[in-house]
Write a structure and sequence with these properties.
Blueprint lengths: L5 E6 L3 H12 L4 E7 L2 H11 L3 E4 L8 H9 L6 E6 L4 H10 L3 E4 L4 H12 L5 E2 L1 H5 L6
Helix pairs in contact: 2-3, 3-4
């Protein structure tokens, strides 16, 4: 394992999608998925246990949705950076997640290289990562 590996908790309720994203991320030498969650409650528990650098978060999940997970994390002193990866390109969701403090909002059909680029950027403290189709809907970076 490389010394500067970005540790990620992947929160996605669809197991097939989650496994595909995990494979993409783990194929990068500088990124490691250290935990996977299928719902919001499990996500918060894993963050407490694993202290990841980044939470890759879906919006629609059972028990607690991604917006509520992000709200709860915002109140904590130690929290991971949040990169949303969602099928929803609704401007309301996007604006709310960016307002709460997500470093970026990507759509699931984003090119794999762009997802990796966003993860690396967010790991370095960058904010405002948004998919081109998000920009096209009039949602601007933070």
């Amino acid at each position: 394992m490389a010394p500067n590996v970005t540790r990620i908790v992947l929160a996605e309720d669809n197991e097939v999608v989650r496994k595909g994203i995990k494979r993409l991320l783990n194929n990068a030498a500088d990124i490691e998925v250290v935990g996977e969650a299928g719902n919001g409650i499990e996500t918060l528990q894993l963050i407490d246990q694993l202290l990841p650098d980044i939470l890759m978060l879906d919006v629609e999940m059972p028990e607690l949705n991604g917006i509520e997970v992000a709200r709860r994390l915002k109140r904590r002193k130690q929290k991971p950076r949040i990169l949303v990866l969602s099928a929803y390109d609704d401007p309301g969701y996007i604006r709310e997640m960016l307002r709460i403090g997500a470093a970026g909002y990507l759509i699931k059909d984003e090119a794999p290289e762009r997802i990796l680029e966003a993860v690396r950027g967010v790991a370095q403290g960058q904010v405002g990562w948004v998919s081109p189709q998000v920009k096209a809907r009039g949602v601007k970076k933070k």
